[in-house]
């Protein structure tokens, strides 16, 4: 029986080559696209899920209540939190704090490389599953001069990995002794570093007097088994307040670390989205693409099913049971789907290097994983059943006596009517899904254009960033003055970090009229002279820092949002203190974005710091190459031991919106694929309809009908269906895109023309697809069409 199924299925496949090719191509595109998306989704869902302690590993967050009683949730915490958790909470077995990341030069002799690393407390390698290949994970970060490096760094510096006990020069610090070598951080880790330094010496050097209001660290806790996390979070509500009575509106909460990568957005202290939104979005897109491909199959199968009605009647007359017929027709669909799946798998294997490049991942088809094959077989089987089940049941239900009568039999007419209605419904559904993707693509593209062109309050054009380290930290001012005299350079300043991605924040600020209940969170960005001038920030009042005013070492510049939150109309000259460093406000700048446009602009205070980690240089218009040459020459002169590296502010800005950019690209590609698949089905249906109405077209041409009128006749029914799809898709797309745009504090508004453009685009593509076949049919000589009459 199976052999007979396969033989008949193969004969039908070969006999109707055009319909088979359209079906296979549509299924291949749908399955291949879905496989690529699902590989990406699976990779996203496995980020940080490799840690052995994952079920008991949590990250600490601070909920900071603002003056409007909203909660601002931040992963930055004080470094004092980690040791206090272990000392005071029996539920916490171990805890670790670490810095977000820093770039430092690692050198052995003349071999030197800039690498990304972090400062961390000793239990880092006991909590996280970053296996060490050399050294003891319990003691590797205990000594003040210890250094733990990755295998890749060990090979760069020494050419091998057994290097415990060897010395490495770190930045402009003393030599450090390698106390451990860990395996390279896997690609599915959100924590990325190439070396680790002990945190205690760094804290003593940088922090001065320890304060609970000073954030900037990431804190993680390993809980004991069977800990009630909800009860522990209640217990921790006033944890920070118990240590600092002034922090009355700061609470601490912990979330499972495995979930924080995907659920990074918070609303009023609770996870409320993040990358999980994109994972869900593209899971839906994968389902859409599969459905559109399946609809193609169902449409063409039902269109051709009338031609097989007599075949069904004859089989039933000679004794074929209905179950046999259902098995035959379903088997044909499943066979076609399995064939398409094999071709799609080959296509995915060819495309995955490009897809990895696009998504910046290292995905591969898991051929050795039996679950992958089970999933692929299940996907092919479900797709085949979904595509073939209706034609199979409908065809097998026909009564042989009625089917074998004349072509005008009532049963056949009913059959044709039912098939037509089904096809029309499927075409509407198919184009509704395609329109949703197209409108989504338009809105996402508009939002990304808005982000790129929005006035951020900072002019990032012609701005270059460079790391300040080594000898530059000691001689930064002479270096800056030399740059100002060089060719192609307009102005030079420095900051503690990228102004467009400011992460340090504190509640340790005060001013004369501050209320005791005011717990406003201020972002802190230390800057040097000429920062406002270099970044082209508008100065609203006062002045920026100047060497003519020695007292500026304790003075401050704030943004207009800070002035608004403070409730001071004329802040210039007002007393202000940051972490008990008392001074006055000397300048107010116009608001500029400190982070992504997803979040509103927050209060900002800028203290003067003449030694920072990031040089900021503005080049003269059209003189970028000359300015870079000057920068390189002077860097080698002032800092010869360090390699010359730099980045453009525009590149840093693009990295900030990497997720949104990726979503925009993927949506465009998959929307295009959806339209191609839908149009393949439309083309097949138009070809079938033209074939069915060959004699009608011949008669109309003999009676004087023009080619245009015939094209309009054949295209009109399809255009009506596309119009219905536009009406159905528009409100759904408006709701989905409105919801997505609300995740941005600053966004474009939905406009009618976006929906009109998407609708017009689909109508144009559909009309072009149908018209091609319609014109072909209209040009046929009526003599040939009517010859059999």
Specify the helix fraction band: 40-55%
Structural class: alpha+beta
Overall 3D shape:
elongated
- Taking all Cα atoms into account, the compactness measure Rg is 34 Å
The number of E-state strands comes to: 26
Report the average pLDDT across residues.
82
* Beta-strand content bin: 15-25%
Number of domains: 3
* Low-pLDDT ranges: 406-415
Distance between the termini: 41 Å
Number of continuous helical runs: 25
Largest sheet: 8 strands, mixed
Oligomer: single chain
Q: Can you walk me through this structure?
A:
The structure is a single chain. With 789 residues, this protein is of the alpha+beta class. The chain folds into three domains: 346 residues, no CATH class; 208 residues, no CATH class; 193 residues, no CATH class. It is 50% helix and 17% strand. It has 25 helices and 26 strands. The strands form five sheets. Strands 17, 18, 19, 20, 21, 22, 23 and 24 form an eight-stranded mixed sheet that branches. It is elongated and about 105 Å long.
Quick structural summary:
With 789 residues, the protein is an alpha+beta fold.
């Amino acid at each position: 029986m199976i052999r007979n199924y396969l033989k008949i299925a193969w004969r039908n496949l070969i006999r109707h080559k055009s319909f088979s090719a359209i079906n296979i191509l549509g299924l291949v595109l749908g399955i291949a696209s879905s496989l690529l998306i699902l590989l990406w989704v699976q990779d996203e869902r496995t980020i940080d899920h490799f840690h052995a302690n994952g079920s008991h590993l949590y990250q600490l967050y601070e909920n900071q209540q603002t003056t409007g009683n909203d909660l601002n949730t931040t992963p930055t915490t004080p470094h004092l939190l980690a040791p206090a958790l272990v000392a005071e909470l029996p539920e916490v077995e171990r805890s670790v704090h670490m810095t977000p990341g820093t770039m430092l030069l690692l050198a052995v002799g003349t071999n030197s490389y800039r690498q990304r690393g972090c400062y961390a407390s000793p239990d880092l390698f006991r909590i996280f599953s970053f296996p060490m290949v050399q050294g003891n994970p319990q003691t590797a970060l205990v000594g003040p001069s210890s250094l733990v490096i990755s295998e890749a760094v060990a090979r760069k510096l020494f050419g091998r990995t057994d290097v415990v006990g060897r010395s490495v020069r770190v930045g402009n610090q003393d030599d450090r002794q390698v106390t451990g070598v860990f395996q390279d951080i896997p690609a599915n880790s959100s924590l990325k570093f190439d070396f680790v330094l002990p945190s205690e010496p760094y804290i003593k050097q940088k922090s001065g007097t320890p304060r609970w209001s000073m954030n900037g660290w990431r804190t993680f806790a390993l809980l004991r088994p069977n800990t009630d996390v909800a009860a522990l979070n209640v217990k921790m509500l006033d944890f920070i307040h118990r240590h600092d009575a002034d922090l009355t509106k700061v609470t601490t909460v912990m979330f499972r670390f495995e979930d924080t990568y995907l659920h990074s957005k918070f609303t009023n202290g609770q996870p409320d989205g993040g990358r999980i939104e994109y994972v869900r979005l593209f899971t839906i897109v994968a389902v859409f693409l599969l459905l559109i491909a399946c609809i193609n199959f169902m449409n063409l199968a039902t269109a051709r099913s009338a031609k097989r009605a007599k075949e069904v009647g004859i089989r039933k007359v000679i004794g074929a049971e209905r179950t046999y017929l259902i098995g035959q027709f379903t088997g044909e669909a499943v066979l076609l789907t399995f064939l398409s799946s094999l071709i799609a798998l080959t296509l995915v294997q060819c495309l995955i290097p490009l897809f990895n490049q696009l998504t910046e991942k290292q995905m591969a088809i898991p051929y050795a994983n039996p679950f992958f094959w089970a999933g692929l077989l299940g996907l092919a089987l479900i797709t085949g059943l979904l595509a073939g089940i209706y034609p199979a049941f409908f065809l097998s239900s026909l009564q042989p006596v009625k089917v074998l009568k004349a072509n005008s039999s009532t049963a056949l007419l009913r059959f044709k009517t039912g098939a037509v209605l089904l096809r029309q419904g499927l075409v509407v559904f198919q184009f509704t899904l395609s329109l949703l993707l197209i409108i989504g693509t338009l809105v996402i593209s508009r939002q990304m254009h808005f982000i790129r062109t929005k006035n951020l309050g900072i002019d990032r054009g012609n701005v270059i960033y460079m790391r300040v380290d080594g000898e530059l930290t000691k001689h930064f001012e002479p270096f800056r003055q030399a740059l100002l005299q060089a060719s192609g350079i307009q102005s030079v300043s420095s900051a503690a970090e990228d102004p467009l991605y400011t992460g340090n924040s504190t509640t340790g600020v005060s001013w004369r009229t501050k209320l005791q209940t005011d717990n406003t969170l201020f972002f802190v960005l230390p800057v040097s002279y000429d920062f406002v001038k270099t970044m082209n920030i508008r100065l609203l009042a006062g002045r920026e820092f100047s060497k003519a005013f020695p007292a500026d070492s304790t003075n401050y510049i704030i943004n207009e949002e800070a002035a608004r939150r403070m409730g001071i109309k004329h802040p210039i000259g007002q007393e202000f203190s940051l972490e008990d460093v008392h001074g006055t406000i000397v300048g107010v700048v116009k608001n500029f974005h400190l982070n992504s446009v997803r979040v509103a602009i927050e209060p900002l205070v800028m203290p003067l710091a003449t030694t920072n980690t990031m040089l900021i240089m503005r080049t003269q218009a059209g003189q970028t190459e000359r300015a870079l040459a000057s920068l390189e020459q002077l860097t080698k002169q002032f800092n010869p031991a360090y390699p010359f590296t730099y980045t453009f502010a525009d590149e840093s800005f693009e990295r900030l919106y990497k997720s949104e950019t990726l979503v925009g690209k993927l949506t465009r590609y998959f929307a295009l694929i959806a339209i191609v698949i839908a149009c393949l089905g439309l083309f097949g249906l138009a070809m079938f309809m033209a074939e069915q109405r060959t004699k009608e077209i011949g008669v109309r041409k003999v009676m004087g009908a023009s080619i245009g009128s015939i094209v309009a006749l054949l295209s009109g029914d399809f255009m009506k269906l596309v119009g219905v799809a536009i009406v159905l898709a528009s409100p759904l797309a408006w709701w989905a895109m409105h919801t997505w745009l609300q995740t941005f504090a600053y966004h474009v508004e939905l406009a009618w023309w976006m929906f009109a453009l998407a609708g017009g685009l689909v109508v144009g593509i559909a009309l072009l697809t149908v018209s091609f076949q319609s014109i072909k049919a209209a040009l046929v000589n009526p003599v040939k069409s009517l010859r059999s009459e």
